[in-house]
Amino acid sequence: MSVTAAAGFRAAGVRAGLRAHGDRPDLALVVNDGPSTTAAGVFTRNQVKAAPVLWSQQVLREQSLRAVVLNSGGANACTGPDGFADTHHTAERTAEVLGCGAIEVAVCSTGLIGERLPIDSLLAGVDDAAAALGAGPEAGTRAATAVLTTDTVDKQARHGAADGSWTVGGFAKGAGMMAPSLATMLVVVTTDAVLDAGVADRALRAATAVTFDRLDIDGSTSTNDTVLLLASGASGVTPGEAEFTESLRTVCADLARGLQADAEGVTKRIAVTVTGADSDADALLGARAVVRDSLVKTALFGSDPNWGRIAASVGASEARVDPASLSVTVNGVLLCAAAAAVGDRSKADLSGPEITVEVDLGLGAGTATVLTTDLSHAYVEENSAYST
Amino acid sequence: MSVTAAAGFRAAGVRAGLRAHGDRPDLALVVNDGPSTTAAGVFTRNQVKAAPVLWSQQVLREQSLRAVVLNSGGANACTGPDGFADTHHTAERTAEVLGCGAIEVAVCSTGLIGERLPIDSLLAGVDDAAAALGAGPEAGTRAATAVLTTDTVDKQARHGAADGSWTVGGFAKGAGMMAPSLATMLVVVTTDAVLDAGVADRALRAATAVTFDRLDIDGSTSTNDTVLLLASGASGVTPGEAEFTESLRTVCADLARGLQADAEGVTKRIAVTVTGADSDADALLGARAVVRDSLVKTALFGSDPNWGRIAASVGASEARVDPASLSVTVNGVLLCAAAAAVGDRSKADLSGPEITVEVDLGLGAGTATVLTTDLSHAYVEENSAYST
C-alpha cells in the first residue's frame, strides 16, 4: 500500500545516521518511474521557510518530479546559505544516482530547527537508498517510517478508482508544530492516474484545504510543511477530475486522521464543528479559535464538558457571534442554548478517546470542522524536553 | 495601601458563601465617599460578555461611580436574562444600603462560566460588606483578597504625586483565561486626585494599553474582564494629565507584574520584546504570536533556549518578517542572526525564574513588549480539574 501502491513508483527507507538516538531509518526516497512525471505541491505559509521548502518550491514551478528525498533528524530550517547548499547537494546527489536533473528532485526535512545536517552521512544515505529502492509494500512502509520524528507509528493510506483502474496512495508524518498553513506536515502522495499539471495542482489544493488544512494540533505552523503529489501515468487511465479529486481527498483525510491519532501527547481525538455562521469562512475562524484554546484543550484532557470555555473561546474569535443564538453541544448532549446552561452537564460523558464539539452560532448557513487533540501532561513533557 | 490608599475611599471583603470550598472572603465592596464620583472603565472585547460586564458598561456611560461590588465564586457569564437580573438586584441592594442610585454601582464577577450565583447569599453578603466598610489598609487588603479565584496571593499597588498631594492605588485579580482584550482581569484603581471624566477615561485607556493589554497568560480572553478607575477628588489637587497618567501607568504595571507572577502554573516569568518591526503594531503582532505559542512556552518551561521555535512562531505571525534580518536573543545571549544559529545555545542559562526573549526583525523602528508565563504541568493540572 502507501506510496508504492500506485504503479510506476519505487521507494526506500534507510538509516543514514542523521538521528542521534535509536536505530530507526531516517532517510526516505520515492522515485517516479513514469511514463509521466506530473507533480504538484503545497507548502508552509510560514515566512521563515526551511531550506528544503525554498528548494522544493523552485522545483515545483516545473510541475514535474522524478523523485523526492526526505530526511528526519533535522529540519534544515534557520541554517542560512550553508543549509540551502546542503539541500542543493542532496538534490544533486539524488539526481546523479537516478540519472535525472536536480531540478526534478524535491527535498523534505524534519526535526530540530537551527542545526546543520551531517551532509556526508546524508549523501551516503542517498546512495544507500537508491540501491535499496523497491516497488513492494515493504519498501513503501520503510519510506513512511524513515520520516518519523516524535511520531510513534507510520501513517499510510490508499484509495482509487472503483474499477481498480488507477490508485492513489501515500504517507504522512507529523506529530507536533502542526497548524493549518496550507499543509502542516510532510506528506507524499502518489498515483498512477494520468494527470495533467493543472488537474494535479487543483486536486491537491482542493483535497488539502479540507483535510490537512483542518487539522490543528498546537497552533504552531512549521517551517517545513510540504505536501507533494506525484503522478506516474502508469495506469494509462485518465480519470475525471472530480472523481480523482474525491479519491485524493479520501487518502488525505485518512492520513490526517492518522496524524491526529498519533499527535504529541494525545489522549483525546477532538472534532470541533461550527455551524450557523455567517459564512464558511466565519465558521472556520470560530472553529480554529476553539481548537487553539489552551483552556478548552486542558478541560477536555480532564474529561470536563466545560462548555463555558468553549463559548468564551468562540466569542473571542473573529467570527461574528450573537450570544442570543449561541448553542454548544458536546458528545451529542446540548449543554448551552442562547449562551446559557441547559440540561445536565454530567450527561456529556467525555471519558472515551473521541470527543465531538458542536457550536451552532444560529446566524447563517456557514459551517466548518477542524480536528485537534487535547493538551495533556504528555504534551508538556514531550515538548519541554525535545531539544535537550 | 491599595484601593483605600487614596483619601475618600472605604472598602470591605466578607465571606458570603459563594465559593463552595474554603473559608476565604468572596465578596468585596469599594465605596467612593467623594466629594467627586468621576469614573472610567475598560471591558473585555469578548463578544460573549458576562452579565456584570453588560451592566457595568451601561453604568459607566454616566462616567460616575459611587461603588463597585465584586464577587468570586462565579462569573455570572452565560446565565441568560436571569443572570442579568441577578446582577441588577446586586446593584440595587448595594445602592439601597449606601443610599445612592443603582446606576452609580458597578458589578464585577469572576469564577466558573455558566452557573447562576446564589443570589440570596450574595445579597446578604452585600449587607455584611456595607456594615464592614473601613478606610484603613486592612480593609483594602480584605477587598483585594475577596476577589481571588485560582490566584494564590492578593495583588495591590500604589503610587502618587512626588509631593504626596495625591495618591493612586488599586488591586487586581486574575490568574488564567488572561489575554489582552483591553483589560484581562478584574481591577479596581482609586485616586483622590481631582479628575474630570475626559482625563479619567484617556488616562485609563493609555495606562491599560501598555500594561494589562500587554500581559497574555494563555491566549484566552475572559467574558468578565473589567478595569475600573474611581476618582474621589478628596485631595483637592488637580494633577497635570501627563503626570497623572504616568502615575496610573505605574500602578497598573505593578499590578500586571503581580498577575504575571501569580499566573496559573507559572514557573517562569517571560518578557518577549520585538524590535525592528515595520511598526509598533507589527511588533505587537509578532510578540503576541510568540507568547501564545505552546511549543515556545513548553520549551521555556523546560529551560530550553529553543530559539528555532521562537523564529518559527514570529515567522508564522501576521508581522512582516524577513529571515535575512531576523535575530533572536534569549537572556542576553544572541542565539540566532539572519535566521541561523550563532554562538553556543548552552550559554543561555534559563534555569532561573525570569526569562527575556528579544526578537529583532531588523526592518524598522517598531517595538513592543508582552509579558507571559510558561506552559507547565501545573497549568495543565489546574485547568484540567477546575470545574469538576
From TrEMBL, chains A, B:
<keyword id="KW-0963">Cytoplasm</keyword>
<comment type="similarity">
    <text>Belongs to the ArgJ family.</text>
</comment>
<feature type="binding site">
    <location>
        <position position="388"/>
    </location>
    <ligand>
        <name>substrate</name>
    </ligand>
</feature>
<keyword id="KW-0012">Acyltransferase</keyword>
<feature type="active site" description="Nucleophile">
    <location>
        <position position="184"/>
    </location>
</feature>
<feature type="binding site">
    <location>
        <position position="184"/>
    </location>
    <ligand>
        <name>substrate</name>
    </ligand>
</feature>
<keyword id="KW-0068">Autocatalytic cleavage</keyword>
<protein>
    <recommendedName>
        <fullName>Arginine biosynthesis bifunctional protein ArgJ</fullName>
        <ecNumber>2.3.1.35</ecNumber>
        <ecNumber>2.3.1.1</ecNumber>
    </recommendedName>
</protein>
<keyword id="KW-0055">Arginine biosynthesis</keyword>
<feature type="binding site">
    <location>
        <position position="149"/>
    </location>
    <ligand>
        <name>substrate</name>
    </ligand>
</feature>
<feature type="site" description="Cleavage; by autolysis">
    <location>
        <begin position="183"/>
        <end position="184"/>
    </location>
</feature>
<dbReference type="GO" id="GO:0004358">
    <property type="term" value="F:L-glutamate N-acetyltransferase activity, acting on acetyl-L-ornithine as donor"/>
</dbReference>
<feature type="site" description="Involved in the stabilization of negative charge on the oxyanion by the formation of the oxyanion hole">
    <location>
        <position position="111"/>
    </location>
</feature>
<keyword id="KW-0028">Amino-acid biosynthesis</keyword>
<feature type="site" description="Involved in the stabilization of negative charge on the oxyanion by the formation of the oxyanion hole">
    <location>
        <position position="110"/>
    </location>
</feature>
<keyword id="KW-0511">Multifunctional enzyme</keyword>
<dbReference type="Pfam" id="PF01960">
    <property type="entry name" value="ArgJ"/>
</dbReference>
<comment type="function">
    <text>Catalyzes two activities which are involved in the cyclic version of arginine biosynthesis: the synthesis of N-acetylglutamate from glutamate and acetyl-CoA as the acetyl donor, and of ornithine by transacetylation between N(2)-acetylornithine and glutamate.</text>
</comment>
<comment type="pathway">
    <text>Amino-acid biosynthesis; L-arginine biosynthesis; N(2)-acetyl-L-ornithine from L-glutamate: step 1/4.</text>
</comment>
<feature type="binding site">
    <location>
        <position position="383"/>
    </location>
    <ligand>
        <name>substrate</name>
    </ligand>
</feature>
<dbReference type="InterPro" id="IPR042195">
    <property type="entry name" value="ArgJ_beta_C"/>
</dbReference>
<feature type="binding site">
    <location>
        <position position="264"/>
    </location>
    <ligand>
        <name>substrate</name>
    </ligand>
</feature>
<dbReference type="InterPro" id="IPR016117">
    <property type="entry name" value="ArgJ-like_dom_sf"/>
</dbReference>
<comment type="subunit">
    <text>Heterotetramer of two alpha and two beta chains.</text>
</comment>
<dbReference type="InterPro" id="IPR002813">
    <property type="entry name" value="Arg_biosynth_ArgJ"/>
</dbReference>
<comment type="pathway">
    <text>Amino-acid biosynthesis; L-arginine biosynthesis; L-ornithine and N-acetyl-L-glutamate from L-glutamate and N(2)-acetyl-L-ornithine (cyclic): step 1/1.</text>
</comment>
<feature type="binding site">
    <location>
        <position position="173"/>
    </location>
    <ligand>
        <name>substrate</name>
    </ligand>
</feature>
<keyword id="KW-0808">Transferase</keyword>
